[in-house]
Amino acid sequence: MNHRLVQNIAFHMLRARLKQTIIAAVGVTFGIAMFISLVSFMNGMNDLLDGLMLNRTPHIRLYNEIKPVESQPVILSEEYKNNINFISSIKPKDRGKAIYNSQTIIDVLKKDKRVLDVAPKVVTPVFFHSGTIEISGVINGIAIAAEESLFKFSDYIREGKITDLEQNNSIIIGAGLATKMMLSVGDVIKITTPKGNLASLKIVGISQIGIAEIDDVMSTTSISTAQKLLGEATNYMTDIQLKLHDIEMAPQMAKEFRSKFELDAIDYQTANAQFETGTRIRTIISYSVGVVLLIVAGFGIYNILNMLIYEKMDSIAILKATGFSGSDVKWIFLLLSLIIGVTGGVFGLFFGFIFSRIIDVIPFVTASLPTVKTYPMNYNPIFYVIGITFAIVTTLVAGLFPALKASKVDPVEIIRGK
Amino acid sequence: MSNKVLETIGLTKYFYEPSKFKVLDNISMSIDHGEFVSVVGKSGCGKSTLLYLLSTMDTDYEGKILIHEEDVTGKKDVDLARIRNENIGFVFQFHYLLSEYNALKNVMLPGLKLGKLSEEELEHQAMEYLKTLGMHDQALKRPRQLSGGQKQRVAIARALINNPLIIMGDEPTGNLDKKNSDMVFDIFKQLAQEHNQTILVVTHDVEFASKTNRIITMEDGMIIS
């Protein structure tokens, strides 16, 4: 088969029908552009919302829960070993919130190849004093560097810097708390711990997560300050938060750590089950809209090629009479649709990118994300690869039927009919 | 090597629409190299049908067709296309030039498909043919800028480009006035005489036929003389 000649003929036929060709290509361009901007936007949104959750929830959290002891004394009794024992009015046992042997656990976790990073944390309820009123709240004592790398905490700080927490007795309070108590950066806040210790902390920042219930009670300090407040030693911690290389491993590893360290462990998937569903649905919606747009464009190409074939019956007949085979003719028309598909597709990628840039600068102000000012976009190159593949596949499929029809044209019928 | 360019053995063809009808009845004939043959007969006698069978474009028949001693019956579409490309030049009643290309490129197309010569050589050769037909100054014009006679001359040049064994014409003068018909005939005559080109023309133009070397007369699907 003479490729160059087939290309040349296809190209000339397109040039003779430039207007229709452009319209067909614009259909593809529009489909791809919409697909790209839609998927980029949806994924940007997904990333943002995922981030919202991921930045608040570790992949795995190890902690001590207050709950009844699992092995009650009666189980140890030889006498009742074979009986079914009912025990009523069991009271939960407070084993203390502290994680025992925390330093060893952290060392072991840090050596684990599946673990990306480990961040210890001290969480304690406190009372904030504002004049004569007491407001209950929570203090998170964090390991500043680890917390920042795991949860990008600085994204949620409205005023001040996370590094300010390195000063002794400093605190970042939630936005709701700050409004309620009319506090601002530089003020001093008085707190009481559950054990009755009184302390004064200097406000170095205001944080805003975006969920009012949390912003109304949460405040953050360094782990050492928190340990001092509680009068505990430097190995005292209530939570160990883990980030993994592969989030899919979380449920399995949570189970493993639960038995290994005799701690409670909760994984990301369990903590955010409903959230995953939302992400998946958004992805499905964006892909299906994109595919529908392309199918519509495909019908456009199909129509135009069909028309072109009726118009070019004479040309097909003479090409066949002078020695072009059915498959040559088929390739001419496949090539026609491929040219439309590739040109339309490439322009589609280009416009998709432009649209993405435009959406990217549209203001998007939300209380939940103080650092986000415009709509989020995800410029993952894989969307562009999928886009152009879709374009080529759709146009090829749309071109296939007209091309097969053209290849089966009987030249005798055309020539005799004249 | 035999001198036969084209031979048919017991060629029979039916039309099935609207009802089964025998168009060609057991036709056996042959055409020798260098002959200028015309096929005449009334409308519906099967002369065009015979031509399309001989052209290998219509493959639905019984019997045998041999082109240059080679049996082409039952060959594949691709092979038949190659045989047509190499051995047969067509001139139809309608010119069938591609409107996207200029006259020169139209002439070159079958040659480009054959791919034996480079593009430059082909262009030169096409120009030569156009020159012999007095069309070289129109070579770069599009078909729609040419007159009927001019278009037919371009079509003849296209039929010649691959130096075919045989030129087949289906009413090549059917659409032309007297002057142009005569010119086309003269071209054919010249080709037959000077270049020893084999030509087979189906026509109902008795005057045209009478000037050819050999006349095949058909009636009701049979050759009667």
TrEMBL record, chain A:
It is a multi-pass membrane protein. One of its GO terms (cellular component) is plasma membrane protein complex. It comes from the Bacteria. Residues 21-258 form the MacB-like periplasmic core domain. Keywords: Cell membrane, Membrane, Transmembrane, Transmembrane helix. The chain crosses the membrane at residues 21-42, 284-310, 331-355, 382-404. Residues 288-411 form the ABC3 transporter permease C-terminal domain. Pfam families: FtsX (PF02687), MacB_PCD (PF12704). GO terms for biological process: lipoprotein localization to outer membrane. InterPro entries: ABC3_permease_C, Lipoprotein-release_system, MacB_PCD. It is found in: Cell membrane. Signal peptide: none annotated. Belongs to the ABC-4 integral membrane protein family. LolC/E subfamily. This is ABC transporter. It comes from Flavobacterium enshiense DK69.
UniProtKB/TrEMBL annotation, chain B:
The keyword Magnesium does not apply. The keyword Aminoacyl-tRNA synthetase does not apply. Keywords: ATP-binding, Nucleotide-binding, Translocase, Transport. Pfam families: ABC_tran (PF00005). Residues 6-224 form the ABC transporter domain. InterPro entries: AAA+_ATPase, ABC_transporter-like_ATP-bd, ABC_transporter-like_CS, MacB-like_ATP-bd, P-loop_NTPase. GO terms for molecular function: ATP binding; ATP hydrolysis activity; transmembrane transporter activity. GO terms for cellular component: membrane protein complex. Belongs to the ABC transporter superfamily. Macrolide exporter (TC 3.A.1.122) family. This is ATP-binding protein. It comes from Flavobacterium enshiense DK69.
